[in-house]
Amino acid sequence: MSTAARTRKPRRTLTPVTVTASYPSFRAGRVEAWSAVSDDGVWAYERLEMSGTPWSILHKPTGIEVGTWAGTLSEAREMTANGSALADVELQTAHQRGEHAERDPGCVKCS
Ligand SMILES: [Zn+2]
Fold first, then answer.
1. What separation in Å is there between the alpha carbon of 108 and the centre of ligand 1?
2. 63 domain residue, yes or no
3. Residue 101 located in a structural domain
4. pLDDT number for residue 4
5. pTM summary value
6. Cα(44) to centroid(ligand 1), Å
7. Which of 44, 45, 74, 82 makes an SS bond possible with 58, Cβ 3.0 to 4.6 Å?
8. With helix as H, strand as E and coil as C, how does the chain read?
9. Per-block mean pLDDT, blocks of 10 residues, the chain (111 long)
10. Ligand 1 centre and the CA of 54: distance in Å?
């Protein structure tokens, strides 16, 4: 009897959101989301009108934009669910407090 277990892709946790703007896409011929807010009101997601249409993530309590863009809304929601977006905001907050006298390699404001 085989004991090989089927490896399953880990389930991704996504922040629950409400889409606040969506428009029909001329290329895909379907409606696509362009902005959203998290249901807890902490995060605002905005699709950028530029090559690749990345998503920017805004931390509303601080007004800080996360230093890394996401490729899709799902990816952006994953970043806010898994804590990486908040870690980036905390890094930028520390920068604003002047705690990065020596350059922090993870900080978008230092680079
Ligand atoms: Zn910094």
1. 7
2. yes
3. no
4. 59
5. 0.85
6. 23
7. 44
8. CCCCCCCCCCCCCCCCEEEEEEEECCCCCCEEEEEEEECCCCEEEEECCCCCCCEEEEECCCCEECCCCECCHHHHHHHHHCCHHHHHHHHHHHHHCCCCCCCCCCCCCCC
9. 63 94 85 96 96 96 96 97 96 96 93 76
10. 23
